[in-house]
Amino acid sequence: MNAPMSKPRLTTSAMIASIASEGQRTVAAPFGNALVALAAGRPDIVGMSADLAKYTDLHLFAKEYPERFFQMGMAEQLLMGAAGGMAKEGFTPFVTTYAVFASRRAYDFIHQVIAEENLNVKIACALPGLTTGYGPSHQATEDIAIFRGVPGLTIVDPCDALDTEQATAAIAEHKGPVYMRLLRGKVPLVLDEYDYKFELGKAKLLRDGREVLVISSGIMTMRALEAAQALKDDNVGVAVLHVPTIKPLDTEAIVREASRGGRLVVVAENHSVVGGLGEAVAGTLLRAGVAPAFRQVALPDAFLDAGALPTLHDRYGISTEAMVASIRSWLR
Amino acid sequence: MKPDSPDQLRALESAAYRIRRFALRMGEVQGQGYVGQALGMADILAVAYRHALHYRADEPEWEGRDRFLLSHGHYAIALYAALLEAGILPEDELETYGSDDSRLPMSGMATYTPGMEISGGSLGQGLTIAVGMALGLRQKNNPAFVYNSMSDGELDEGSTWEAALSAAHFGLGNLITLVDINNQQADGPSGKILGFEPLAQKWEAFGWHVQRASGNDMAAVLAAFDAARSHPDPQPRVILFDTLMGSGVPFLEQRDKNHFIRVEADEWQQAIAILDEKQTQAGDQQ
Description:
Chain B: Keywords: Thiamine pyrophosphate, Transferase. Chain B: It comes from Pseudoduganella umbonata. Chain B: GO terms for molecular function: transketolase activity. The complex is a heterodimer of chains A (about 325) and B (about 290). Chain A has helices at about 30-40, 60-65, 75-90, 100-105, 105-115, 145-150, 160-175, 220-230, 250-260, 275-285, 310-315, 320-330; strands at about 25-30, 45-50, 70, 90-100, 120-125, 155, 180, 185-190, 205, 210-215, 240, 245, 265-270, 295-300. By secondary structure, chain A is α/β, with parallel strands linked by helices. Chain A has two domains: about 25-190, Thiamin diphosphate (ThDP)-binding fold, Pyr/PP domains (Rossmann fold); about 200-330, Rossmann fold (3-Layer(aba) Sandwich). Chain A has a seven-stranded mixed β-sheet with strand order 3-2-4-5-7-6-12, with helices on both faces. In chain A, helix 7 (about 160-175) links the parallel strand 6 and strand 7. Chain B has helices spanning about 5-30, 35-50, 75-85, 125-140, 160-170, 190-195, 200-205, 220-230, 250-255, 265-285; strands at about 65-70, 145-150, 175-180, 210-215, 235-240. Chain B starts with 5 loop residues before the first helix and ends with a helix. Classes of the chains: A alpha/beta (about 325), B alpha/beta (about 290).
């Protein structure tokens, strides 16, 4: 009988897989900890979840402020409707679930109860885009496409722990409904090495470069920065414009950067090619009469496979290596 | 006035008469409207706005008010009639019902109308909002009640039952749900669209204090509201009101029933005349 040691170790398709690469610096629960800190001075903040507090880092808030935490059960329509009711009574609910359930199951309640009355509800949802290997039931590949059509709904897609922490404070300050893509658990820390501060509605140029302009949001900004470093070795200059607020979009910064001479514009997002940041940027540029060479690094318009995240990120072109390869091929 | 005295009932009957009349006048303005539902709910709304609810007519957003949520937004014409009766809306505004730029759109919207707490109409949402408001009031130590008014059709929506579970789970004794059972949905009789009986047992099994009463018997409506408000246990309350669409206008009561009662142009004034005559007779009997 052959020894099992020759067998390769299988990677995992677990629901909660880390998005941090090996050896990357991480911060635990930046959203949960930021909310706990904020809530000390904000008695209006309440936390609500649909049986996913533990998996959205809201359990930290629940532990610190049990009298302000409401477990609504696995009932996302109720979660959003009741959050609207709470907001009508003057509270600022932070509600959490997975992005698939908020966008697909509770959409009408977010649209009609929360957004139509411009209620002050903050919807923070874990597992955005392709951040779980669990298959389409849990992969929110079109959440931004779904929510971009809702008038007055602010959409935030933070990059890392720093972004998440600062965005949490900023959306609490903002009056009105917000959908935030939530990175939970051990979240990579990247942006502290850049002169960066999250500002709601503002895009930030993290680095400049002459050949390529990457416009990115969420975890793809982290990948874009790594890709830029790799392409530097090829003498390809890559600029990275981080766009953590998808709506309202910082069209001024996007048009300004995309107008700067002859660069290939690549929009990178952890989302379907349909209806996300890529098409939002494309529309912005067309309307402004700016027509650079334009490419998208994004998930295909398809129901994605289950599997290990590194495998899937490679397969669908959103790993750093795949992104570098794509940009190289487009520059040829 | 002693509770449940003949005087009180007469005063409530008069209020219901005026609510029906306001609804018919609004219907006439547009030549349409969910007037069958408004006539059917008039007695319930009379008790709500002339007996049960705490509110300030000149301060619709007064923090101490009882919240009345119109989950079935298409019943807006009924609630406008009640808000006119309550003095929350001025009578001359009735003429604008359903017109462009009016504060009285055909489906209820919170941002348009004083006294309209929510934008209902996407059916099955009101009770979820009511749960949040009841939790919020409790959190603020505000003793106000939340009333959620809903249609029997909304019993089809899963979210109604999510909210029903939740209200009992949280022991929301400050929540009163009113279900208008007129047995008419868009495609036919409610029971044939998606059977929901035995309804009282369902709500009881969900942990609610349950009453079932005729929604067009003033004494029964009054007693049901009083019992719901004074129930001592920390549990949500529901009143299942069986109502008759078109109630108070016999030729509309008898009309081939469905979700939307057709009223011809010359019939609005006929219907109002019938109401007026009945009211005069009731006055003569005193």
